[in-house]
């Protein structure tokens, strides 16, 4: 079974980077709408979305934020990280079928509290910058190497 591991606060260095990619599918948008309650038709109704400036359905901005969260939880610092805050700016829409890549870079460490600030830039498959921001996290103090949990099975029904 695949393993996941983290970087402890002491292992993290200024300038350290990590990436995480995900294909954004219609199912992802539907699940996000169901969990969040955000059923804005620009995300779910192709006929409505065609009448907007985007011309097709777009992903929720906060879905990109959630993918940043996944990058932090799975890559840098990794399992055991506590999310403290996030700033985001949505620069371009993420469309269904886009593959987005989160680039994380450590820009600050606060020794007294064990906090790490990460620069977060998200690009689509055309290398267009779609989201920018920073995240503040509490990095783990203990090293973890764990079996990677499998994603839960979820069905979307009418």
Question: How do the strands and helices of this protein lay out in sequence?
Answer:
Elements: E1 3-5, E2 17-23, H1 26-36, H2 41-44, H3 46-50, H4 61-74, E3 82-90, E4 99-110, E5 115-123, E6 129-138, E7 145-147
Antiparallel strand pairs: 1-7, 2-4, 3-6, 4-5, 5-6
Which features characterize this protein?
4 helices, 34% strand, 158 residues, globular, alpha+beta, Thiol Ester Dehydrase, Chain A, two-stranded antiparallel ribbon, five-stranded antiparallel beta sheet, 7 strands
Structure description:
By secondary structure, the protein is an alpha+beta fold. It has a single domain (3-145), classed as Thiol Ester Dehydrase, Chain A, CATH 3.10.129.10. Helices cover 22% and strands 34% of the residues. The protein has helices at residues 26-36, 41-44, 46-50, 61-74, and strands at 3-5, 17-23, 82-90, 99-110, 115-123, 129-138, 145-147. It has a five-stranded antiparallel beta sheet, covered by helices on one side. The longest helix is centred in the middle third of the chain and has 14 residues, at 61-74. The relative contact order is 0.25.
Question: Would you summarize the structure shown here?
Answer:
By secondary structure, the chain is an alpha+beta fold.
Major beta sheet, strand line-up = 2-4-5-6-3
N-to-C order of helices and strands: EEHHHHEEEEE
Task: Report how far apart the termini are.
Answer: 34 Å
Determine the number of helices (DSSP H or I, runs of at least 4 residues): 4
CATH architecture: Roll
Secondary structural class? alpha+beta
Q: Find the CATH topology.
A: Thiol Ester Dehydrase, Chain A
Number of domains: 1
- Could you name the CATH class? Alpha Beta
